[in-house]
Write a structure and sequence with these properties.
- This protein has helices at residues 41-47, 95-98, 159-180, 195-206, 219-227, 241-248, 264-273, 296-302, 316-328, 347-355; strands at 2-8, 16-22, 29-39, 57-58, 63-70, 82-85, 122-123, 142-146, 150-153, 187-191, 211-216, 232-235, 254-259, 274-282, 305-308, 338-342, 361-365.
- The protein is α/β, with parallel strands linked by helices.
- The chain has two domains: 2-156 and 334-365, Alpha-Beta Complex (Quinone Oxidoreductase, Chain A, domain 1); 169-311, NAD(P)-binding Rossmann-like Domain (Rossmann fold, 3-Layer(aba) Sandwich), CATH 3.40.50.
- Strands 3, 5, 6, 8, 9, 16 and 17 form a seven-stranded mixed beta sheet that branches. A six-stranded parallel beta sheet has the order 12-11-10-13-14-15, with helices on both faces. It has a four-stranded antiparallel beta sheet with strand order 4-1-2-7, with no helix packed on it.
- α3 (159-180) packs across α4 (195-206), α3 (159-180) crosses α9 and α6 (241-248) packs parallel to α7 (264-273).
- The longest helix is centred in the middle third of the chain and has 22 residues, at 159-180.
- 51% of the residues are buried.
- Bound molecules: nicotinamide-adenine-dinucleotide and zinc ion (2 copies).
- Nicotinamide-adenine-dinucleotide binds at residues 40-42, 45, 167, 171, 191-197, 215-218, 221, 236, 260-262, 266, 283-285, 309-311, 354, 357.
Amino acid sequence: MKTRAAVVYEHDAPVVVDTLTLDDPKANEVLLRMGASGVCHSDLSVVNGTIYYPPPVALGHEGAGVVERVGEDVSYVKPGDHVILSFVTYCEECVMCGMGRVCLCNGIHARKGFLLDDTCRLHNKAGQDIPQMSRIATMSDLAVVPEQALIKIDPEYPMDRAALVGCGVTTGVGAVLRTAQVEPGSTVAVIGSGGVGLNVLQGAKLADAERIIAVDLVERKLDFARQFGATDTVNASEVDPVEAVKELTGGLGVDYAFEAIGSSVTIRQAFDMVRSAGTAVAIGLARSHDVVPIPPQELIWSEKKLIGSYYGSSRPREDMPEYLRLYDEGKLMLDELITKTYDLDQINEAFADMEAGKNARGILALDL
Ligand SMILES: NC(=O)c1ccc[n+]([C@@H]2O[C@H](COP(=O)([O-])OP(=O)(O)OC[C@H]3O[C@@H](n4cnc5c(N)ncnc54)[C@H](O)[C@@H]3O)[C@@H](O)[C@H]2O)c1
Ligand SMILES: [Zn+2]
Ligand SMILES: [Zn+2]
């Protein structure tokens, strides 16, 4: 069968919306009709090589869709089921999965972007294999993905809202609730108010943090930040964010600082703005050669912690339905995250708008 998909053929070049051949689902695989795919900075990082996939690669990792057909031995879903996709496929059998840390699974040995039998389902006109970002490639009308990457949801949820839970919401809210386990009454700073950072902010609000300080370079982003729970904002294009955050906390620094941008400079800022024995959480994905300089003496004398957070330390099949429930209860904002909806053909415009700081999140409407 045929599908149209967003493909990176060359780093730092416009993404090509190409018509590809899609193979039938094999055993334990599912054919989806995609409803919507969010446009996350990690997609742009695949375009520019920060998150490295040798081109070509089909893009998209924040999506929701409807099951069209299932391969042999699929038991979790049936045709017609609505699903969110997980950008981590996990085995449920390895030591990390056994510890409940499924996003840190080390039991899958297929190459990055390949299906679990180490082959591809997407091919272009020239017969070239096209691997799938995160094994799912949600920026496509149709997708064949591993059954393990699916989270069943109630069909009542609009596809675009559900798609957001596939990355930004789970990454941001999970970083607060699961990774850092922020206590009520805490002081929190969040550097970067993009699709992920805004969800860190609403996670901090859910955790009953008392003071929530948003840092960004763009005033429009700080407006979004206030809407998502920031009690204070700092424009880092005008002031030193570390000094500003310290000033707002009586010179002490915050209990928790989250970095949601992807640079060693801002990760270091997060480390510098937490108080002694506080915790800095790195979420943003920097280039692989980027290194955060931490002076060991300062680390010891301050007893600060610098920790990473991958996919919000989540358990997707537990956490994602829970986040949708919080949305039902009015405790989690999803509608407000979507600033603009694009067609698949407008993918390059969606990336340009992200870089210009126009959107909370942009969404590609595939079959809404
Ligand atoms: N850890 C994970 O599991 C995970 C999951 C998803 C995304 N990510 C990463 O999270 C990061 C953020 O993703 P996003 O989709 O929210 O990106 P985004 O582009 O929507 O948001 C980034 C924000 O940072 C702001 N910013 C940039 N430089 C800044 C600076 N020096 N100081 C203050 N603010 C600055 C921008 O104005 C923007 O608002 C990316 O690196 C992405 O790859 C990580
Ligand atoms: Zn993402
Ligand atoms: Zn595993």
